Amino acid sequence: MNRLFCIFLVLNILILPVRAQDEDPGDRPVRAPFESGIIIDNQTTVVPMARTLEYNIQHKFSPMDNGLSDLFGIYSPGANMRMHFSYVPLKNLQVGYGLSLHKMFSDFSAKYTLLEQTRNDRIPVAVGLYGNMAIDGRHKDAFGQGYDFLNRLAYFSQVIVGRKFSDRISVQANGSFTHYNATPEGYDRDRVSVGVNGRINLTFQSSILLQYDRPLFIEGLTEYREEDRQELSRPNLGIGWEIRTSSHVFHINITSTKGMIPQENAMFNTYDFTDGELMFGFSMIRLWNF
Amino acid sequence: MKRNAFFLMIMALATMGLLAFVATPQQGQKAGEPWDIPEEYKNMDNPYADDASLDRLGRGNYARHCRSCHGRNGEGDGPMAAQLNTFPGDFTDSEWQKKYNDGEIYYMSIIGRDEMPNFESTIPDKEERWAIVNHIRSLEK
Predict the structure, then answer these.
(1) How many structural domains is chain B composed of?
(2) CATH T-level topology, domain A30-140+147-289
(3) Are B121 and A289 in contact (CB < 8 Å)?
(4) What number is the ipTM of this complex?
(5) Which of A89, B62, B98, B117 has the maximum number of C-beta atoms within 10 A of its C-beta?
(6) For A12-44, how does the pLDDT look when each residue is reduced to its tens digit (9 = 90+)?
């Protein structure tokens, strides 16, 4: 785990001096590689302009494999919801706080856009860093014997590299590290994941969104023998439709995870999209500029 | 009898549909009061006038920020227009286009007043603002 933290730290130190270079006034950042800071379940490299308040309501229904009997999961109990506020106090820095229904998570997050892709390709990609700390808010009985408040904490950190290829297509790749202070028996506490996601603009106001996140098994990170270990968290496949107005962004999506915070999806996703375990969801994002 | 009732219903629906397209300004809407535009804007030059490279940007921003009230073609017939007390104007009207210069359109579009929102913080980039002005200019019929 320490080694991975070191890798993230070194990456930051290597990238920061590039950020500090004087900006060429003739080579400005590309316009809107993404319309908001969120692409289905993932973060984008985009941080809205300074002094923007973003309010996001996310909802995921149950899996749709019961078909019409529960209207593809919409009438089924067990939906998950999240409300999230974030604010941009400084250019390229966003801080946020969210509340999720599942496990009664409270999450504190920060995102910083280290590099912005420029129009003349002097900087060919955008690079963003995202991290959060989530607190499992359930009753302490849920944590078993030897309860300690620290057992509630889970962390997630991510490096995102993105490029807007044209007015129609933007693509991102990410690498993530998840750490839970405590997990149920058989589950590792550390997980590395990779992902790719992107946007295809259909019109000026709507786009198709795609995402695929894959948790990786790394021998050095596991704490269990194979026979004692729970199955690796399943990949998260998602497709969505984005609609944007002057101050709103709406997503209607189908994903193969029910988690609202990324560490839950990286560590505990049991839904397998190859078995048709997909679920409807939506996000409503409201932006205010002050 | 039943056939007549059905025919009448179709005619009523068709009439309502036609009225929805024809009646502008909406019933109960007043025409906008004259704008009080500062000299600074009246004398402002458009640095991007005739810049065709901004056409797409202008169309996109107009679609996102303006179309819901001003309508796809700028006739003041967007889906939100009916909720306004003031008719949002007809950009296709050549009289309207002659009446204002680019700086004045910039002021009305970005600074706004009353029901016309201020877009200074929503559209911070000057280039994007002027792209909208250029697009409004292109709507003249």
Answers:
(1) 1
(2) Porin (2.40.160)
(3) yes
(4) 0.73
(5) B62
(6) 444 544 444 445 556 889 998 998 899 999 999
